[in-house]
């Protein structure tokens, strides 16, 4: 426990000897400096049995045990402080015990925090109750249940606990609204929207016109989610606001307000879905909520974002999307031809200028920038997503040919999805294109294998420099294309003049690509083979016979028409971001009652729905309390309703 504990222990021991105390107190103090957490915890518990109200030195030793590195010792200290002797002169628990327990309410371990809450529940009084109330907002469900139980011991009802929690949240929110820091004002605005009382909503209304767009957006979202009366006309107008954050919040708000508000905002929503900014997706979802099947197909063909096109295309026939894809492909070919013609003219003019400069003995002119056709990959991706989400339907040969042409382009960003969509819509004309790509990629892989064998180079993934780069890259979050390019340049620089480390390059691309797991070359060839088989491409069987024993297990499995080997796993989500699963004690009904005190409002709403379905008297009483005193509006509504489904929490 450190030198400080040792000194205090020695001091306490001296006091004990001077007072003629028994030897068991000395043994308890000596255990506090032991190496074993179990031994130190035993010492804490034994010391607690020996303490009197006036022995300040020994009290400091016990309080210091609350800062021990071992969880077992901190739990023992919290449980021992539960029995804090009372001062003879005022018959109140020692203040230093309450303060030490309050510090343990912020301990990283739930078991310690629960023990601290239980001890404070034995002390009660103004200070312990204040400490318990303050810890409610920063605790998860298990600790909150311990705090609620402690407050019950202090004679506080559920109504009083909830009312205090709501008041604290409201006070904190209003304080933050007065801040000059934008993030704090946004936080305060969102909190008032969640609380959702008439007074809270009245405070939000003027914030719609706040000069800070994020604050205004938070106010709009809160008013929409709360269904503020009479606010719909103002929010409908804001769907066309030039600030993307405000317009996006308004689109979501009219969706929350219901069909009548969406219908009033429909012209503005239809304009917003064609943008590439934040309002596009909430506007699309709002339109989908009131539109009939196939009613939004025209907008889906014009959409500029994949999720927007996918949302609008549901229920639409697939043919028009394939037609639009074919038209765009023809346009791309025309642009490519024009770019090549312009490039040829520019090069001819450049050659003439160089000749003229030499004749006059002048410095040669700078070469012209290469003519580049317009990038259409993003548009192709949007149409592919719409086609994938459209209703099932048969494509004409010309429409299937458009997908086949897109597959033949073999764009590395689009190819995976293009093959999946071609199989999904049974575009049989794309089968030969998939087989053609498989042959091409196989030839490249086999050439690389042969070159590596002839030159007797080490396997690409065993190169020390490549491994070092990969190990560093693995520590970097999914990054941009610039980072990928930089890492590939490092590999190339290291391997100047030799065959490039293709294995390392592929691994780098996998580590840092936009997708958590990206297909390797072998996985891509396997996908091409499977697509060719599904689409009935002729000549596949002959090729597959030569690949059944391929060194790449994925290629061999596809050739044998066997299930694919297990894919590479995506990088593990950090523990802090993983979905939290907390198991509460008791049967389903007891667990639902416990989750009424969860720190997550979605869990509290779900618990109310579960209790509504049970229909017993105790559950009904709990729901009535939550419906009246719960801080957040959406939970109050869930607990007040007789339906078995709770309002969904907006993300």
Describe this protein's structure:
The protein has 651 residues and is mainly alpha-helical. 66% of the residues lie in helices and 0% in strands. It is built from 34 helices and no strands. α11 (182-195) runs antiparallel to α12 and α21 (377-389) packs parallel to α23. It is extended and about 105 Å long.
Question: Strand share of the residues?
Answer: under 5%
Biggest pleated sheet: none
Average pLDDT, all residues: 81
Approximate helicity band = 55-70%
Low-confidence stretches: 1-20, 87-92, 457-462, 476-481, 495-502, 509-518, 570-579, 644-651
Radius of gyration: 35 Å
Present the secondary structure layout.
Blueprint: H1 3-18, H2 23-31, H3 37-50, H4 56-64, H5 71-81, H6 95-104, H7 110-123, H8 126-136, H9 141-153, H10 158-177, H11 182-195, H12 198-204, H13 213-226, H14 232-238, H15 244-257, H16 259-272, H17 280-288, H18 297-302, H19 306-313, H20 319-359, H21 377-389, H22 397-409, H23 415-424, H24 430-455, H25 464-473, H26 481-494, H27 502-512, H28 521-534, H29 540-545, H30 553-559, H31 588-595, H32 601-614, H33 617-629, H34 633-640
